[in-house]
Amino acid sequence: MNTTPTPPWLLDLPASARLTLACLDLTSLNDSDTEADITYLCQRAQGPMGPVAAVCVWPRFAAFARAQLPAHIGVAAVANFPHGHTDVDAAVQDTLQIVQAGAQEVDVVLPYRALIAGDEEAVTRLLTAVRQACPGLVLKVILETGELKTPALIERACQLALAAGADFLKTSTGKTATHATPEAAQIMLNAIAASPAARDTVGFKPSGGIRTVQDAIVYEALTQQILGAEALTPKRFRIGASSIFGHIESVLNPTATPAAVPSSGY
Questions:
Q1: N or C end of the chain, less CB within 10 A?
Q2: Ordered DSSP codes for 76-106
Q3: How far apart are CA 212 and CA 60, in angstroms?
C-alpha cells in the first residue's frame, strides 16, 4: 500500500498554478519579435503574482532582456534553433552571443535529423562544442521528441545529451507538429533517473502545447513520481510556454481580466 502523502499542489489548483509560475520559462520566439515584444514579456515575467523562473528569447534579444529583468529572473536564449542542424560553428556562434549577452541559460536543439540518420558522432560533436562554449551556464538540450518516432530514439537522444553535459533535457522547440507528450516525458525522466551522474542533478523541461495549469500538472506529477518531490523546483523542473500565463492568472486572480501574452509557438 502506497502511504506517500499526496502533494498539496495536486489537490489545490491555485497551489499548482503557483508551482507552475515559479518553474515557468516565459517564452517569445516569433520571427517577428521586436524589443517592444520583449519589454512586454519581461514586464509580465515580474508581475504581481510573482516571478517566473526565466524568460526565453532569441539570442539577439538576450542582452536586452537581461537589462529589463531583476537578477533573480534568469534569461535563456536558444541556439541551433529551431532547425537542429549539424553546423557546429553556427551553433557555437549562437552560444557565444548568449554568453556575451550576460544570459544564464542556453536552450540548444540536438541535431535530431542526424540522430535519426544514425550519425551519433555529429550529435555529440555539436552538443559538446556548445557545452564547452558556455561554461557555468545552464544547458538545456532540446530533443525534439515529436520527430523521434520511437522510444528507443528518444532514449538514445537522452543518453547522448546527458553524456555531453546537459543540465536539462527538454522535449520540443514548439515549432513542429508534435510537442511535449506524457509518453516522451516518461522516457526522458526515466533516462535521467537511470543515470547515476544525472539522477540527482539534471532537470526536465516539457515545452510546446502546454496551455493550462491542468496540462502542467501532468508533467509535474510525472516528475515527482520518477525523480522525487525534490525535483519540483526551478533548478530541476521548467515548463516552456507563453500561452499558459493567462490561465495561471485566471486561476490565481479569477476576478482580473488577464492580459494576453503574445503567442510564441509554445
A1: N
A2: EEEESTTT----HHHHHHHHHHHHHTT-SEE
A3: 29
Q: Output the nine-digit C-alpha cell for 126.
A: 555539436
Specify whether the CB–CB gap between 98 and 77 falls below 8 A: yes
Q: Position of cell 562544442? A: 129
CB 154 within 8 A of CB 135: no
Which amino acid belongs to residue 132? Q
- The catalytic position among 94, 107, 140, 167 is 107
Taking phi over 0 as left and psi of -120 to 50 as alpha, with beta for the rest, 174 belongs to: left
Marked catalytic residue, from 25, 140, 170, 175: 170
Mark whether 200 is an active-site residue: no
Residue corresponding to grid cell 541535431 = 111
Active site residue 170: yes
The pTM for the full model equals: 0.94
Is residue 175 part of the annotated active site? The answer reads no
Residues of the chain with pLDDT under 70: 1-6, 8-10, 256-266
